[in-house]
Amino acid sequence: MATPRRRTPVAAIVLAAGKGTRMKTRRAKVLHEVCGRPLVYYPVKRALEAGADPVVVVVGHQAEEVEAALRAHLPGAPLRFAVQKEQLGTAHAVLSARPSLRGFDGEVLILSGDTPLLTTETLRAVLRRRGRAALAFATMTLENPTGYGRVVHAPHGGPALVVEEKDATDQERLIREVNAGLYCAEAAFLWKTLSRVGSKNAQREFYLTDLVALAAEGPGAVAARVPPFEAAGVNDQEELSLAARALTRRLAERLMRAGVTLEDPERFDCDEGVEVGPDTVLEPSVRLRGATRVGAGCRVGQGSILTDTTVADGAVVKPYCVFEQAVVGPAALVGPFSRLRPGADVGAGAHVGNFVELKKTRLGAGAKANHLTYLGDATIGAGTNVGCGTVTCNYDGEKKHPTTIGERAFIGSDAILVAPITIGDGAYVAAGSTLTEDVPAGALALGRSRQVNKEGWVAAHQAAQPAAPAARRAGARRPRRAAG
Length: 484
Description:
Layout: E1 10-16, E2 33-34, E3 37-38, H1 41-49, E4 55-59, H2 63-73, E5 79-83, H3 90-96, E6 107-112, H4 120-130, E7 135-141, E8 150-153, E9 159-163, E10 177-186, H5 187-194, H6 210-216, E11 221-225, H7 228-231, H8 237-257, E12 261-262, E13 268-270, E14 275-276, E15 281-282, E16 286-289, E17 293-294, E18 299-300, E19 305-307, E20 310-311, E21 316-317, E22 322-324, E23 327-328, E24 333-334, E25 339-340, E26 345-346, E27 351-354, E28 357-359, E29 362-363, E30 368-371, E31 374-376, E32 378-380, E33 385-386, E34 391-393, E35 403-405, E36 410-411, E37 416-418, E38 421-423, E39 428-429, E40 434-435, E41 444-445, H9 457-463, H10 470-473
Parallel strand pairs: 1-4, 1-6, 4-5, 7-11, 12-15, 13-16, 14-17, 15-18, 16-19, 17-20, 18-21, 19-22, 20-23, 21-24, 22-25, 23-26, 24-27, 25-28, 26-29, 27-30, 28-31, 29-32, 30-33, 32-35, 33-36, 34-37, 35-38, 36-39, 37-40, 39-41
Antiparallel strand pairs: 2-3, 6-10, 7-10, 8-9
């Protein structure tokens, strides 16, 4: 019986120390977000998916913020962090990770922290491509290779070296095959060879690309062609927007393959990690953010924004709703123009209508609040109807107080419920009432001032007014002041 081949361990180094001056912002480049995640999240995540353990992130500018962001989005992942105190080039950045990989004997992937479109399949392809060579590196062919290192091949066809643009000759600048900034090397070769990298170049930096020439001198280097749109880095705000659009399109295609209908995929925004069930329809300009989950057979109307929200099967969200940390139950109907704030929980088959706002409120199964209403810190029983203009006055200027409404109650329009207050099952509240005391089950509560009609009041009021000056009644105008 053949002995199974031992899998070579894989580690990864992600370079994320740079500031990114071309972004023109105070934030480090790798912290700019694409589809709800910082740029650096994507290469780290893909390296983990490709089997890298550990992943060492080389940080520098805003190091603490970068580490905090990655740990928040990838809790429990085998991450390590190495600080590059001086920005002396990519080879120097990789050397900064060496203490974090002390004792590791296997393959080392090296990735750039600004490549959000890189796929797990591409990383695996580079790992396979290395074979028995000491180094494999990714290349891509560009129509306009300006700014990239050019790949120069030896006469026999293999890669001989990578020449950075500032060091290239006019002839070398015509080469369209460029370095993609993705490497796979044996750990022993990597650390031994990096000590030979110098800084005799136009930028006086230690180039990681020098590994190609040093590998070609002995154990050999191989090139792995990768799609240009995957490996291209993000360097400015325009490239950030293009990457966001491309990644969103990729997420949209994944949803459509899973049975979701996107009426206009080009007008759809979605964060990484969002889930949507089959037979759900997403209308144009919908945005799904954070940890949002939308069930099967739902419909989300145009212009709606859902953040960290769960929508159960069969629910309908009408256009232009804004939800945050909310729950919408099965077959519920919400909108249009509804706002569900954190803690809002709409029960099965319940209705929340136009210009209704819920905050930390549970609306029971089949309950309705259809118009112009604010319900905060409230628990509302099943089958209760909340009339137009109702307000739960939950805040006394210092503390929040709860409102509890039982099942099958009827709250008339323009009711003001001053919390803390409890309204029992089946109770009725008359329209226009302001209530400050509890209402027993089955009772009718009226909190109005008594209406008084004064006959002939309007005519008497007008007759009592002083007569207006004659000039004003006639519309006379004051004479203009003479010139000079």
